[in-house]
Write a structure and sequence with these properties.
Length: 186
């Protein structure tokens, strides 16, 4: 008789543990889904804001290259990943064109003396170093190119100018602009 009672208690205890475990699993999944959906919404809002600002900058002038933020200055803390700047190109020529873009530390900036690192080290912080764009006559890019930076913990606390160069496919100059990155302590 005692063995049946012990078996019954073990079964009820097991069922209670399983119900609690399933409840925690479901609550955890709901929490993760909520976090990811709000993060996706925030990214969509930022993307919309960047697109609106770039569209407004193109509408206000005959610029070939627009950068965001429009102040052309960003501050990023050490040990930060995923922050950066965006740029967009508009083809002002009378024909369809292929363009090449590149993002790099300004070659005229003496980074070794001023920041105590090599330009290649700072260039490695960007996720986008180069690429190509095909644009129709008078057309601008459908969406801005986002240049995200990963600033390591030991990065020097200084201001580094990054250049965005736009050239025709044959290598001749089209447009260029600069973004100043100031590295702040964590």
């Amino acid at each position: 008789m005692k063995s049946k009672k012990g078996a019954m208690e073990l079964s009820v205890g097991t069922i209670v543990i399983l119900v609690l475990a399933m409840s925690m699993l479901i609550l955890g999944l709901v929490l993760v889904r909520t976090i990811f959906s709000s993060a996706t919404g925030a990214i969509t809002e930022v993307d919309k804001g960047v697109k609106d600002a770039i569209s407004k900058a193109f509408a206000d002038s005959d610029k070939k290259l627009v950068m965001y933020p429009t102040a052309r200055k960003i501050e990023i803390k050490q040990r930060t990943q995923g922050e950066g700047f965006a740029f967009s190109v508009r083809n002002l020529d009378n024909e369809d064109r292929d363009f090449k873009y590149s993002v790099y530390v300004d070659k005229e900036f003496n980074i070794i003396t001023k920041c105590k690192i090599k330009a290649s080290d700072a260039d490695s912080w960007t996720d986008v170093n180069s690429g190509t764009i095909t644009l129709g006559r008078g057309a601008a890019m459908d969406s801005a190119r986002l240049v995200t930076l990963t600033i390591p913990e030991g990065a020097p606390l200084c201001t580094i100018p990054f250049v965005v160069d736009i050239k025709y496919n044959d290598g001749s100059y089209y447009s260029s602009d600069q973004m100043l990155l100031t590295i702040k302590p964590k």
